[in-house]
């Protein structure tokens, strides 16, 4: 197995030649009852990087993300996000940290009784406390333009196709300027063409908004399009790491099984 040794680089200054560490997970372990799900996860994500996590179902990819944002408490290990130890934060500090993190989960989680514009404005007023109507309008129009749906503002979520809902969900998440984006299977349930468009959009948004992302996916094309780096998870650990091309060329039987 060709796992790269994860070097402990937390707390390094973002000085010349060194990339700023935005997320650092060390020795993360988590069990539910007698089921040991995470058996020692180590991961460093640098600013502006898209890291894709691959792995069969039930490996603990989502559990890792939930630990990262303080929704689950690990049994062992440390999670450092934007310079803060997640498990040492009180509720108020955790809430504050979460405003810097955008989530895009399987369902786009739009409020069905609100128009697209109202969904966006709700996020802006709640998170960024913006109340000026012209600024709200400008931000909504800008983000809808960015995700390729400039005319969707007055539509209801029920009027949108699955692909459009994903785009609007992404817009709603990005409109509050998160530093980190966490995607949990962003292309699940979409047809191959729409999946490709959403993957491309994730990449475009990373470039435009300079976000740092962890993308959990089973979609290899999504991984190919979006990943600066791929990690593969198996049996509660990360077992292989590299660029998509590096892993694609791997001779390791387990890694190769992902690329068939
Ligand atoms: N709150 C919880 N209580 C008990 N067990 C849980 C809890 N959350 C997750 N698990 C268990 O942990 C294991 C890993 O779940 P997780 O959702 O992280 O898998 P995953 O790798 O994201 O899978 P998938 O690709 O199917 O989403 C599963 O067996 C799941 O049942």
UniProtKB/TrEMBL annotation:
Keywords: ATP-binding, Nucleotide-binding, Transport. Transmembrane segments: none annotated. Residues 23-260 form the ABC transporter domain. Signal peptide: none annotated. GO terms for molecular function: ATP binding. Gene3D superfamilies: P-loop containing nucleotide triphosphate hydrolases. This is ATP-binding cassette domain-containing protein. It comes from Mucilaginibacter boryungensis.
